[in-house]
Amino acid sequence: MRVSLKMWFLSIMLSLALASPALAQKFDWQQAKGTQLRVLLNKHPWQGAIEPHLKEFEALTGIKLVAEVYPEDQFRAKVLVELTSGASSIDVFMSMPAQEGLKYVRAGWLQPVDEFLKNPALTAPDYNWNDFLEKTRDAMVIEGKIIGPPIQVENTSLMYRKDVFQKYNVKVPTTLDELEAAAKALNGKAMTDDGQPGYGIVARGKRAAATSQFAAYLHAMGSTWLAPNREPIFNNEDGIKALDLYGRLLRLYGPPGSENNHWYEASSIFSQGKAAMYTDANSLFPVIEDAQKSKVVGKVGYALFPRGPKGQYGSTVAAWGLAMPKTSQNQKAAWLFMQWATAKEQVLAVQSEKGVLGARESVWKDPKGMAKVPADLRESLTMGSKVGTPLWNPPVVAVAECRDAIGAAIVVSIQGGDVRAADNKAATDVKRIMLETEKK
Amino acid sequence: MRHLGTGWSRFVERHPVPVFTLPSVVAVALLMAFPVAYTLYMSVHSWYASSLTSPQFTGLGNFRRAFFEDDRFRNALWLTVYFTALATALQLVLGVSLALVLNRPFRGKGLVRSVFLLPMVATPVAIALVWMMMYNPTLGVMNYLVGLAGLGPYRWVSNAAIVVPALAIVDTWEWTPLITLITLAGLATLPIEPYESALIDGASVTQMFWRITLPLLRPTIIVALLFRAIDCLKTFDIIYVMTQGGPGFASETLNVYTFQVGLFYFHIGYASSLLVILFALVLGVSLLLIKVRRGAW
Lengths: 440, 297
What we know:
CATH architecture of chain B: Orthogonal Bundle
CATH superfamily of chain B: MetI-like
Distance between the termini of chain A: 61 Å
Largest sheet of chain B: 2 strands, antiparallel
Largest interface: A-B, 26 and 25 residues
Shape of chain B: globular
Low-confidence stretches of chain B: none
CATH superfamily of the largest domain in chain A: Periplasmic binding protein-like II
CATH class of the largest domain in chain A: Alpha Beta
Radius of gyration of chain B: 25 Å
Helix content of chain A: 40-55%
Mean pLDDT of chain A: 91
Structural class of chain A: alpha+beta
Order of helices and strands of chain A: HEHHEHEHHHEEEHHHHHEHEEHHHHHHH
Structural class of chain B: mainly alpha
Distance between the termini of chain B: 63 Å
CATH topology of chain B: MetI-like fold
Oligomer: heterodimer
């Protein structure tokens, strides 16, 4: 008893001694005062929402921001060209790690932020990295290193017409089997404003664009892109089942011409009321809830992507984040910006003002953070971002080329071709592409 | 100084041709010869656009890969030839027929001629977007139109089997007027004497067309064909806008594939060798047609 009391006393003393400097010393936001930062932003809801707040950062830190905004295609090209040149003056840029992370990391272009995060002199005590939803943190890790904080998250999820499901008394699918049953049951049923029939389901079918949505079916079915030894295994039995299902759904219960549908075609079919279900990124909700263009405003439910036969989750977790090039001359200031932009106050601000889907759990629990987002979307998004997988793209260097190779198999499946042969061919192609682009 | 000045002007006077053409020669060399030479250089190298690795010499490796290992390339090569043959054949028949019709005198001829030329002046990307809507399987007008004839409905550019003909129709709609225009010019220059003597000899209209008009028009038609064939071989805009090579790779012609390889996969070396192959193809077809024009065959 005496010993344990002594221990208590000791440990309390010790923790006080350790904690007191941190408590006493306020975090120094002004430590990089006078620096100028060049920040490259992609035209995106997050960018639109954070821009009005950038002055607050300048006031807080004394750092001057020069923000450049480009449309997505030009943005990606610009970043790539600058990083390729090896003499980029970019300090911070928006990045989707699953799209370009491995390529950039292998090329040695990115400065991981692990060390900044660990350093109490550089990271505010209330930043709380673990507040980011579990799988969004994973989504920002490439080859064991954190390349930056997430700013926006989306999952492949199931969007469905609540009114149609109710009218025809169909249960909202929670498994892939139920998904197919529902698509079959609702295909051809009246569902538009004027009582016209619609399709059971709609999803992307256009080659490379479809690959990232097929990822949800693949993982729910229990397969994945690559084995731990980096051999393609998406053509295993479960993978073939997933590919077959994706094609079958669109061929039998989807709109004709699915092979040419990108998200804008698919989402417009859905928002015109011509489909009962839609599997795609839930970040599309502003399109579907747009009173100017959509005929299904308020009629759509946002559910977790159905689980597979063995209970696996399929929700993919795609995160936009901030990253820092190794060539940045102002890494400390750059980290201060990344940290500020993803601190709770800013995440709450962009989420409550513009409905940007943030990655912080605490913000999703805050009534202000929930305000702009439908309740079931909030639930399925936070759930999906905890249990899903960040692998919405194959984790390779040549993402675009591999997405095309796999997308070709998806098209074959939609058209009712030989799914097994197509999947095997895609795996062979991916293996060849990896050999060519990842040799060290 | 003065001595230098007179020397220079004397030099200019003696050699006006090289001196005055020099600026344009330099411009052409910089803007055309260098890119072509650099493409040739890159085509025998393997290089992913990156500052970290320099191009590696692979000799004919890229070409071997294209012809023997890359089924996407072979598919693209075949589709390029298929699309070109189909589109130019359609345009040739329609264009020449239209020219023959328009060559007769009738009221409002000038107006009709101008209207026929309109598709040619429209922007290809805009045309592609409009046709995209017309081809839409559920909302488009094309299925309604073929439905009137008791056909369809088709899935048009979403159907791998008919996507190339569907694209050829768009190209035909846009470029038939060019053939019409050139043929009309040719018709205007035809001599009248052969027809007079044919009439005296009692030839029928059909005979006159096959035996006189067509042979005399042959050089003109071949020129029109040459323009269209070269253009079709390198068609990019309408295909990229309408299908991006899809569904799957069913409309991925050589140019579209090269674009993907170069600017999406950043495999600059391989893309360069694909361009060299496309160049050889265009050159081959052109030489062939020129030979036909000269009547060598």
